[in-house]
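User: Can you write out an input/output pair for a complex, sequences first and structure second?

Assistant: Here is one pair. Inputs:
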Amino acid sequence: MLLSIELALILEKLALIVVVVMSSLLIAMYATFAERKVAAIMQDRRGPNRAGPFGILQPVADGLKLFFKEEIIPNLSSKFLFILGPCLAMLTAMMTGAVIPWGDKVHFFDRDIPLQIADINIGILYVFGVVSMGVYGIMIGSWASNNKFSLMGGLRAASQIISYELAMGISLIALLMTTGTLSLKEIVEQQQESWYSWNIIKQPLGFLIFLICAFAECNRTPFDLPEAENELIGGYHTEYSSMKLGFFLFAEYINMFLSSAVMVSLFFGGYDIPFLNDAAFAEKIGINWMALLHAGMFLLKAASFLFLFMWVRWTIPRFRYDQLMNLGWKVLIPLALINMLVTGAFILLQQNNWHF
Amino acid sequence: MRSLSKAQIITYMQALTNRAKQVERKPMTLLERAYLPAIFKGMAITFGHMFKKRPTINYPEVKRPFSPVFRGLHILNRDEEGRENCTACGLCAVACPAEAITMEAAERKAGEENLYREEKYAAKYEINMLRCIFCGLCEEACPKDAIYLSETFAPANFQRKGFIYGKDDLLIPNPITEPEAFAEARGNRAQVAR
Amino acid sequence: MSITEILFWFLSVLAVGGAMLLVASKNPVHSILYLIITFFAVSGHYILLNAQFLAIVNIIVYAGAIMVLFLFVVMLMNLNADSEPPQKNRLLLYSGTIAGCCLLLVLVAALKQSSTTSQLVEMGGGDAGLIKNLGMALFSDYVFPFEISSVLFLSAMIGAVVISKKEA
């Protein structure tokens, strides 16, 4: 039987899925705490420091508070879709983690276990597909709320995400032309040599465009128009309360973490440790410890991106809606196209041994 | 109505000071329109703030010292033998602009000399902290140095009647039986009546 | 019944059921959501055929972009059963039913004629749908139709820009 042969594989993948989901939930939890702390420090305040030592139990307290709040479902909303909205937002947020290579591989029970849930040969496109699904949670939730402010927020989210997806895709095409593969694992492996083989060196403009688009896709300041609280009350989650609201807020942080992870694997060498000969070092300390180091390095890089997200949020004010659309359509897309053309010309020239 | 240009308005208006600055509305240069340098400048500012000293203090553990002229919660004073100073003359109630103080006088009986310094004392002494404006006039009016304003403020309460402070709330601890509490309540300023 | 066959039947039921509900549901927003379910089921079929690229492109383009725009328009115009005028034209109803039945007849006849009914799923075999082979085919054998279609897209884009300029 197919099933019995693959039982070990299924168990291994299941364990990996549980670990990835749990750790991204945990990281998202502490991202909310870090956000408040970073905000406080940047505003010369102290931030949450009451729950537990240094306030490290604050996310638990926040979660408990959300759980105990009253569950409100508006009378005139369509109940099923109202509940489906936040669930979809959470689901799509979690799904990206499946193709990200968190580390090289570990060796347990005479098996090489790659630290990636699924190495599919269209990894980036998968990420893209999931990201484009992400808007449904917001749109369905906002429409089901039967509230015009929610609907406005949902429509803003949809148009913003579609607009920035284009520039993101085109900036990625330039990157894919240099790497020649869509699999995230292979892209990361190409960058293992040293820090100057990271794709950020080859594609700085592409990275900048991707970064800006990632901010827009995560609905983070300065692109947080869907939840602009001074115009739209709460945006798409105006009518939500209790843990359904928590899901929406939480999905934002998971999205943030996973988009940081995608950026790390695409542009910053994934789990590569700079200034270190990985293969030689791995022989000295063993594969499993090396995998741990790799994963730690990956998380460190992702955490610095999370910090960047927060840093930008507490620095830059929100765009006006026309500025947002101008930036997306009139600046980023042409820039991305130019980047793509220049990259293509370079690659052609290189293949032609620098002759025209 | 005739519309005026910005420059005209400024020449028509008589400047009161020479601090007024005309807003520059030049078209942005390419560097300014690129927007990124401005972003980096802003981010440098916020990053710099991470290393600044934070003015917030951890309140219940750390307390900010009160100003030496702070006028806080009232205290009814005792002398160093632990006898109440107040003689219920009512000058504080008269002086009070908010009419927050009421009192009832009583005569000292034989055998109560260790409790009250004068022959007359306040059997009831109430201050309504919701009316009180903490002006300190009662302190100035008192001829016996019996009432003064301490260095703390009235804590929050769930009920209005909780803000009407009676003698139990106002009296300073006895310096003979509880010298430490007395010293703490007295603070640095108040003088014990001689 | 192997696992791929179970998946095949599940996806087929999902796709056909979604399509039925899409036509039957009164609320346009629900219709669009059913259509999205159908797209997902079709993408699942693509994956069963080992055509991952087509599957994911189907999701990105149809479910991710076009359906979002549909949803956008429907939500913005607040279409629902009340705003739809009741269908009075009997002739239209009858002609519609007859046309549908004719289509069904043609489909059934065509399916009966075809010989590939025996093999439902081509799991793991067949690599025409993989991105390398697809790219090779598109840019060598079918490069002319490919370029023609890109010109078509370009003209559509320019048309959209022109129309939106005229409005403003």
